[in-house]
């Protein structure tokens, strides 16, 4: 078995030197300011050993990766009732697409496309004040990462709130079908803010550990979700975690993963490791270009593909 520390160090070195870096997201103006040359990686194995390289301690905007954690929270609150308002099929469409909602009674295809994540956020909100729901999401992230310093980047949240017309359209459209319970402005406010949570690769890999170890944090022994739920969240990450790039990600990397337009990807090697990578340049589907390549190299060299 190759040495994980060496593999991670070599991948970080190679990624630093590559010139094909993709395009940094610019539709959220604040994200356009991020340095495209950044690259970070953190891998945490079953013994809690961390292998990290590059900018692994620099916080970045986790964006859609937050949707894994809001799904986990919402399933804890609503259980299978959640599946009445959101499906669990890949969409084959871009993350912010509206086309399927009209023919499918406003029910989003899955919890990871924007429409689905907004519907999930609405479930967490369920009659509470936006501030309380957001506090709950943030505390959940801090608990999972065992790090109370994790915060929300208010500038990123405000930037998206000012420009998130497409998400406002999705939310209003779903509201017209009765999919959302709360005022659209409340739900969107919580959604924009949880997308703006800032975390480093190390913090994110820590937070994802329960998915790699059947719902338990192997260090503390604490159960976050039952094993069956961890398996199912991983299944949705594999099939829907990269939007219309999910097939390609499964083909190349072979691990459940969730991307965000901040350039992060959380990936899960069941029983072996929780992995976070960050490279801000994106491919045409809005997924981290070098992040995917780094994960492909890691999975191949460690023999971690689930297939
Ligand atoms: O709603 C949005 O457009 C962003 N807050 C999140 C999108 C995202 O991260 C898509 N991921 N690749």
Question: Descriptors for this entry?
Answer:
307 residues; alpha+beta; Beta-lactamase; five-stranded antiparallel β-sheet; three-stranded antiparallel β-sheet; globular; binds 6-diazenyl-5-OXO-L-norleucine
Please outline the helices and strands:
Blueprint: H1 4-17, E1 23-24, E2 40-45, E3 50-54, E4 60-61, H2 66-78, H3 99-103, H4 114-125, H5 130-145, E5 151-152, H6 154-163, H7 165-176, H8 184-195, E6 197-199, H9 201-207, H10 209-212, H11 227-240, H12 246-252, E7 257-259, E8 264-269, E9 273-278, E10 281-282, H13 289-302
Antiparallel strand pairs: 1-10, 2-3, 2-9, 4-6, 5-6, 7-8, 8-9
Bound molecules: 6-diazenyl-5-OXO-L-norleucine.
The site of 6-diazenyl-5-OXO-L-norleucine has 13 residues, from loops.
Describe this structure in words.
The structure is a single chain. Helix 2 packs across helix 4. This protein has two domains: 4-61 and 199-302, DD-peptidase/beta-lactamase superfamily (Beta-lactamase, 3-Layer(aba) Sandwich), CATH 3.40.710.10; 64-197, DD-peptidase/beta-lactamase superfamily (Beta-lactamase, 3-Layer(aba) Sandwich), CATH 3.40.710. It starts with a helix and ends in a 5-residue tail after the last helix. It contains 13 helices and ten strands. The mean pLDDT is 97. With 307 residues, the protein is α+β, with helices and mostly antiparallel strands. The protein has helices at residues 4-17, 66-78, 99-103, 114-125, 130-145, 154-163, 165-176, 184-195, 201-207, 209-212, 227-240, 246-252, 289-302; strands at residues 23-24, 40-45, 50-54, 60-61, 151-152, 197-199, 257-259, 264-269, 273-278, 281-282. A hairpin with a 3-residue loop joins strand 8 and strand 9 (273-278). Helix content is 46%, strand content 12%. The chain has a five-stranded antiparallel sheet with strand order 3-2-9-8-7. Strands 4-6-5 form a three-stranded antiparallel sheet. 6-diazenyl-5-OXO-L-norleucine is lined by residues 63-64, 95-96, 114, 160, 167, 195, 259-261, 286-287. It comes from Hansschlegelia beijingensis. Its EC number is 3.5.1.2.
């Amino acid at each position: 078995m190759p040495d994980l520390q060496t593999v991670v160090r070599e991948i970080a070195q190679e990624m630093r030197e590559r010139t094909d870096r993709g395009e940094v997201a610019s539709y959220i103006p604040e994200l356009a300011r991020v340095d495209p040359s950044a690259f970070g990686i953190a891998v945490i194995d079953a013994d809690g050993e961390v292998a990290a390289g590059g900018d692994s301690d620099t916080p970045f905007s986790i964006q859609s990766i937050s949707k894994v954690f809001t799904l986990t929270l919402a399933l804890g609150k609503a259980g299978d009732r959640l599946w009445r308002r959101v499906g669990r099929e890949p969409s084959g469409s871009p993350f912010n697409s509206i086309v399927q909602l009209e023919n499918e009674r406003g029910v989003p295809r899955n919890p990871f496309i924007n429409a689905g994540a907004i519907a999930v956020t609405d479930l967490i909100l369920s009659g509470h004040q936006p501030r309380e729901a957001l506090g709950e999401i943030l505390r959940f992230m801090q608990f999972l990462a065992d790090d109370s310093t994790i915060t929300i980047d208010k500038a990123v949240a405000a930037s998206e709130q000012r420009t998130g017309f497409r998400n406002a359209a999705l939310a209003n459209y779903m509201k017209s079908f009765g999919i959302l319970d709360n005022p659209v402005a409340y739900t969107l406010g919580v959604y924009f803010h949880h997308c703006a949570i800032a975390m480093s690769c190390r913090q994110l890999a820590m937070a994802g550990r329960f998915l790699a170890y059947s719902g338990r944090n192997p260090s503390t022994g604490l159960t976050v979700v039952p094993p069956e739920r961890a398996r199912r969240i991983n299944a949705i990450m594999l099939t829907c975690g990269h939007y219309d790039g999910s097939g390609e990600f499964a083909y190349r990397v072979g691990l459940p993963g969730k991307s965000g337009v901040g350039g992060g990807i959380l990936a899960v090697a069941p029983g072996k490791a929780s992995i976070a990578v960050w490279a801000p340049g994106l491919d045409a589907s809005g997924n981290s270009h070098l992040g995917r390549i780094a994960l492909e190299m890691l999975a191949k060299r460690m023999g971690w593909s689930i297939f």
